[in-house]
Design a protein that fits this description.
Largest sheet: none
Oligomer: single chain
Structural class: mainly alpha
Protein name: DUF2269 family protein
Strand content: under 5%
Pfam families: DUF2269 (PF10027)
Keywords: Membrane, Transmembrane, Transmembrane helix
Number of strands: 0
Number of helices: 4
Order of helices and strands: HHHH
InterPro entries: DUF2269_transmembrane
Organism: Sporosarcina soli
């Protein structure tokens, strides 16, 4: 029974990792299209970005929950270097996701803001978050013992 439960959590963990990273790549062309969009298309693109970020956020929650369950049920200790580093980068990415996207998207309609600067920040934020998630993915797959 236990190997089947563990296997289910591994599957859910991998699926949540895919959902937490994959949609971010779809944001890149949408952000690029924001540059020349009229106000109606602009709102549609911003809605897609918000929904995508919300989905990524919820997939991140599932990723954390299944990761904790895998640590509890699995053979790895909490003090393993890859576990600690994963948690640190995960906390950084959570803070970055909430600050990076939410604050940038709020500023989009403020008076006196340069939309091209906001779009550039949104693109840079997306790439930075993708980078953080890929570091986490590397730590989870390779499980490097650094100390």
């Amino acid at each position: 029974m236990m190997p089947a439960v563990y296997g289910l959590f591994v599957f859910l963990h991998v699926v949540s990792a895919v959902i937490a990273i994959g949609p971010l790549f779809l944001l890149l062309p949408i952000i690029r299209r924001l540059r020349g969009a009229d106000s109606q298309a602009e709102e549609a693109y911003l809605t897609v970005i918000r929904v995508t970020i919300r989905g990524v956020m919820h997939a991140g929650h599932a990723l954390v929950i299944t990761g904790v369950l895998l640590l509890i049920l699995g053979p790895w200790p909490w003090h393993a270097s890859w576990v600690i580093l994963t948690m640190i980068v995960l906390l950084l990415s959570a803070v970055y996701l909430s600050r990076g996207f939410t604050q940038v998207l709020r500023k989009f309609h403020e008076l006196g803001t340069n939309k091209n600067d906001i779009i550039h920040r949104l693109s840079r934020t997306t790439w930075t978050y993708i980078g953080l998630m890929l570091i986490i993915l590397w730590l989870m797959v390779q499980k490097p013992m650094i100390w």
